[in-house]
Recover the amino acids of this structure.
């Protein structure tokens, strides 16, 4: 659906859409219902959810049921497809995007993501399900050695690679899961390597 086919938005709906676009561009994830409630100055989760339903109905977003941040923007301009390498099993200790780790290239439409990813990485496990990232998903990653608080990152701990939200507490890096069944990982800054930023996903 392109802009000419989309239904017009109310002023408030346009604001909510802008908040979603800014959150996805800066953090790689959409705002949660509690965050939208705060932005709206509302105490009602129903009001925030109604705005998301309206944006979906009017063709600006799609939503993944049952997840806290499962929102995908649909109103990005169409361009030629990108060929992005899919990283399979990551060699212990080696660069995550090393050529020997590449399974194949996947062609993706640019309107799937706000930023062009450098590679796709297959998710193993369910520690990020409340961020809409499920076991078996292919996450899109933009290479970056640094990240801001609140961004979802791909991080290397020793020889393990993990996907978590980055926070900082008392001088420690805290890698936060988005699943209450998992505990945060607390580590000194010199013991973690940020490989890249999460910018979206593909679900098979």
């Amino acid at each position: 659906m392109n802009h000419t086919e989309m239904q017009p938005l109310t002023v408030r709906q346009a604001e909510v859409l802008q908040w979603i676009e800014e959150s996805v561009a800066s953090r790689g994830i959409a705002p949660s219902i509690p965050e939208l409630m705060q932005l709206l100055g509302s105490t009602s989760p129903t009001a925030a959810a109604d705005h998301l339903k309206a944006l979906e109905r009017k063709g600006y977003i799609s939503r993944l049921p049952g997840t806290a941040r499962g929102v995908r923007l649909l109103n990005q301009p169409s361009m030629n497809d990108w060929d992005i390498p899919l990283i399979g099993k990551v060699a212990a200790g080696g660069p995550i995007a090393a050529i020997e780790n590449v399974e194949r290239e996947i062609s993706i439409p640019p309107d799937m993501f706000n930023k062009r990813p450098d590679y796709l990485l297959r998710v193993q496990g369910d520690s990020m399900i409340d961020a809409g990232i499920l076991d078996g998903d292919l996450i899109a990653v933009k290479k970056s050695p640094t990240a801001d608080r609140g961004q979802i990152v791909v991080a290397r701990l020793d020889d393990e690679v993990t996907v978590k939200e980055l926070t900082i507490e008392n001088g420690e890096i805290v890698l936060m899961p988005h699943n209450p069944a998992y505990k945060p990982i607390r580590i000194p800054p010199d013991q973690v390597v940020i490989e890249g930023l999460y910018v979206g996903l593909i679900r098979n």
Notes: The longest helix spans residues 11-27. Helices lie at 11-27, 33-40, 45-57. The two ends are 22 Å apart (CA to CA). Residues 116 and 142 are 7 Å apart (CA to CA).
